[in-house]
């Protein structure tokens, strides 16, 4: 391939990474290497009306139950920089590579390391099979349409906080095969379950089968499964696609913890979606996670998580510079802890299984300058999503283990559906690099919790579930409304 062809290929690759926005800056283009520099940040302001903190009688201060002090107003305003991304991508003698790192307020520090590398992987073609490639490194796990979409192509200020909280698949380190043919595409791979993990070589048990993910579909939508897009324009023909997705994780001990527990340490970030996992994979929301009959540590944990989903996409050009877009998806997820059930007394625990399901529908109209979109999400949660203070690590038959009926006052979600509606979402593209998005969001039956500084909306700030304790459970507000405006600069 000559230099001109490689330059065209590099620009095309950059355009695929930043659909509907700007081309990245090309740093190098020669016969061996094409290297592009990209970046993205979003400043987002939010005006929200929620419950007054007097609706919940207590909060926790210094480990003690305390009545609220001066009531906080139920209207609040925020201004955050919710995205701070640096990107590199390119082509090295036919091997594509992608690097994405979080900076500033989006970077997360843990007790072990930084959790700010999102993507660093290569897409390596197989010489004897031109349509087959090997994907190796850390990437967005493409077993869920909403999780795998590039945030720079969204018609909204961010992905759904509600849907992400329960079904996000996040980033992980792994190896996969990707292939496509006329009217179909597929990817299948394995992951480690612990992205950005420090190299400490701690003892670990291997379980078979390993952690797996897959995405298979039919149609003429040719998005890269690992770099999917939401808003796209200037189509020459109608596009559609239907995909089935899945992921399976069987947990195992890893050092002083277990694999699933190693990937969830960032739920306090500003935009509040758990980048590397979801509620079922986080001990603040899943009381069964990592528990055994004798506690954590040397006891073997026997638990598994799996999810499956189906999604449909439709894109239709309405004119030379406007496109109608619609997507729909439905997800089902289950977590089960067999190590608790193996020794549990029926007087104390009759299940260690959590099932949840939910869906999302998006419709929008995009053009070179304007965009209008709506998004409806719903989640059917579980009664067993509770704060882990009511399930001790010393086992289900221990003397201090509460019986199953005692869980009910300490529910986070209950089992009634939760809804989120984003409408209207209006985007104005200032130029190829900058855009403004304004939207109104509504939550129905949303779980909230009272803190010493007011009431928190848990779908936006899931980390505040730590303020829940048996005497004072959540406030289920029938109606929460927020107005948002975000400025995005992407190149």
- When the domains are counted, the total is 1
Strand arrangement across the biggest beta sheet: 2-5-6-7-8-9-10-11-12-15-16-17-18-19-20-24
Low-pLDDT parts are 1-22, 268-273, 344-348, 388-409
The assigned structural class equals mainly beta
Strand fraction: over 45%
Helicity, in percent?
Answer: under 10%
Q: Which CATH class applies here?
A: Mainly Beta
**How far is it from the N-terminal to the C-terminal residue, by CA?**
26 Å
Shape: globular
How many helices? The count is: 4
Number of DSSP strand runs: 24
CATH topology assignment: Porin
Tell me, rounded to a whole number, the average pLDDT. Answer: 79
Quick summary of this structure?
The chain is mainly beta and 491 residues long. Helix content is 6%, strand content 46%.
Please provide a written account of the structure.
Helix content is 6%, strand content 46%. The protein has 491 residues and is mainly beta. It has a single domain, classed as Porin (Beta Barrel), CATH 2.40.160. The longest helix is centred in the N-terminal third of the chain and has 15 residues. The N terminus is likely disordered.
Summary keywords:
4 helices; 24 strands; three-stranded antiparallel sheet; mainly beta; Porin; 491 residues; globular
Which helices and strands appear, and what pairs or packs with what?
Layout: H1 3-17, E1 25-29, E2 33-49, E3 59-61, E4 64-66, E5 75-92, E6 95-102, E7 117-126, E8 129-140, H2 145-148, H3 161-167, E9 171-181, E10 184-191, E11 212-219, E12 239-250, E13 253-254, E14 257-258, E15 303-319, E16 322-337, H4 338-341, E17 353-367, E18 370-380, E19 418-429, E20 434-444, E21 446-451, E22 454-457, E23 475-477, E24 480-490
Antiparallel strand pairs: 1-2, 2-5, 2-24, 3-4, 5-6, 6-7, 7-8, 8-9, 9-10, 10-11, 11-12, 12-15, 13-14, 15-16, 16-17, 17-18, 18-19, 19-20, 20-24, 21-22, 21-23
